[in-house]
Design a protein that fits this description.
This protein is an alpha/beta fold and 487 residues long. Helices cover 47% and strands 13% of the residues.
């Protein structure tokens, strides 16, 4: 492998397209999903669009991409018609990558481009947030919506409020009504910064914020078999990203304007335009993402590292199925036969033998993921079952709290979440005295985060006691015994 060249324009010719898309986020998912889709649109329907990537946080990935002339490979694996399928393709649609923390003026000047038409983002569930400390003259603003508001305001002023210069904003964050929430944050910044009413009207009437749903399992860089892959490709690609064959992008388009301009469905892709995204969103987020988030801390603390190993494990595989079929599916308002079929397909996708999906990689921002992916099922289950608790979903919350202790047997690790949550968990666990009362104190604090959860979970009968008992069981007896008991 040492003799192989590194992927760049000397190895693969890079096509040039019109830079119509500004993309917030350079992570594995966007590169293996959105940018891959843009590539297919360019090839199949002459969409003629490149992507300018903005690194949304200070420490990111773009230096590695820039070192490869923004070329990278998407490797897709899966089972279709009971047969293994594999494909690889060099993605050449990324025009350039910009770090607003080191070159803010270059970032802001993208707003002045006549070609710019779309904003696409995936800054995780924690990304669409409001920070009242952000200021218009910050370079850059802390939050993604703050950065985007500054960019849109620059465009508004540069083009003197031209109504034809509004943009189509397509967020891919896995939160409910992601486009509506992003627009709401922008309007809050306009109010905070006392910007003129004409800008508000321009946002309201000349820019389109759509709600979306995305679905493709993307484990990322295949570090365990990188050498074999590179030898097969004939080059080294340190930005290679692996994903499953399956993909789905649902875009809410009540007026059909987006479909006319962004006809991804005409490129042989599983992209759906609909006037109501809610059924698709509830099914996918509750079952697929909810299953992921519920099993991550349980499986990881059990001593297992990947989704596939978890699903195929005698005990944890049964645990996961009972979470899905007994506690999640009854809370989703769709025909049960459709949900069962979808859930069985999800479990098959989790078992994909070609993909190594690390549990730890899914654990990013798990506190917010539990809120968006699992808590709605918890609350609905309690409501429809007249106070009965969904014990496995709540056991997953207990496991999650223990996960943030950062200890697995004799091994230590650092959970990844926003700084506020990491500081909170560190303070709670560093001051833990080892007693049952100490556990109740930790549980009460976390369940009481009403601003985060939207409700004080301590007020719901039985939750504090069950979660505290589960945490105590995990710490005292280990995850193996604790899971057996909750089963």
């Amino acid at each position: 492998m040492d003799k192989l060249p590194v992927l760049n324009v000397d190895i693969v010719k890079k096509n040039r397209y019109t830079p119509k898309i500004l993309q917030f986020g350079e992570g594995n998912f966007l590169r293996a999903f959105v940018d891959w889709i843009i590539q297919q649109m360019n090839k199949n329907i002459d969409f003629d669009s490149s992507v300018v990537i903005v690194q949304p946080i200070e420490n990111g990935y773009i230096d590695r991409l820039n070192s490869q002339d923004n070329l990278y490979t998407v490797l897709l694996n899966g089972i279709q018609d009971n047969k293994p399928v594999e494909s690889s393709e060099v993605i050449d649609v990324v025009e350039e990558c910009i770090n607003p923390y080191s070159d803010y003026d270059k970032y802001l000047n993208i707003a002045c481009s006549e070609d710019l038409r779309y904003i696409i983002s995936n800054t995780t569930e924690a990304g669409i947030d409001y920070n009242k400390e952000d200021k218009l003259d910050d370079k850059p603003q802390n939050s993604f919506p703050g950065k985007l508001t500054a960019l849109l305001y620059k465009r508004f002023t540069f083009f003197n409020g031209d109504r034809d210069k509004g943009l189509i904003i397509i967020p891919c964050e896995l939160i409910d009504k992601n486009g509506s929430k992003l627009k709401e944050m922008i309007l809050k910044y306009i109010d905070l910064w006392n910007l003129e009413p004409d800008f508000t009207n321009w946002i309201e009437n000349n820019s389109i914020f759509t709600n979306t749903l995305v679905d493709r399992i993307v484990p990322g860089f295949p570090k365990d078999n990188r050498e074999a892959i590179f030898n097969k490709l004939g080059y080294v690609d340190n930005c290679l990203v692996q994903g499953e064959i399956y993909h789905l992008w649902v875009i809410e388009d009540k007026t059909q304007k987006i479909q006319k301009e962004f006809p991804a469905d005409k490129a042989g892709l599983n992209v759906l335009f609909t006037d109501d995204i809610r059924p698709y969103k509830q099914r996918k987020v509750s079952i697929l993402n909810g299953a992921h988030t519920s099993i991550v801390p349980v499986g990881y603390l059990y001593g297992i590292d990947t989704v596939r190993e978890t699903v195929e494990h005698d005990v944890l595989g049964r645990y996961l199925k009972e979470v899905i079929f007994d506690e999640i599916i009854p809370t989703v308002n769709l025909p049960r036969n459709e949900l069962v079929e979808f859930a069985n397909d999800v479990i098959t996708r989790f078992k994909n033998p070609f993909i190594r999906h690390e549990l730890f990689s899914i654990s990013l921002n798990s506190t917010t993921k539990y809120k968006t992916r699992i808590l709605p099922s918890v609350l609905k289950y309690i409501e429809i079952n007249k106070g009965v608790l969904p014990k496995k979903l709540l056991f997953s919350l207990a496991a999650l709290i223990v996960f943030y202790k950062g200890e697995r047997g004799t091994e230590t690790y650092k959970p990844i979440d926003n700084a506020e949550f990491i500081e909170m968990y560190n303070n709670l666990w560093n001051n833990f005295d080892g007693s049952k009362d100490g556990i109740i104190k930790i549980t009460t604090h976390i369940l009481g985060m009403k601003e985060h959860w939207g409700v004080d979970l301590n007020d719901i009968t039985g939750i504090n006691e069950f979660v505290s008992d589960s945490i105590f069981d995990i710490l005292d007896n280990g995850m193996t015994e604790a899971v057996n008991r909750v089963m």
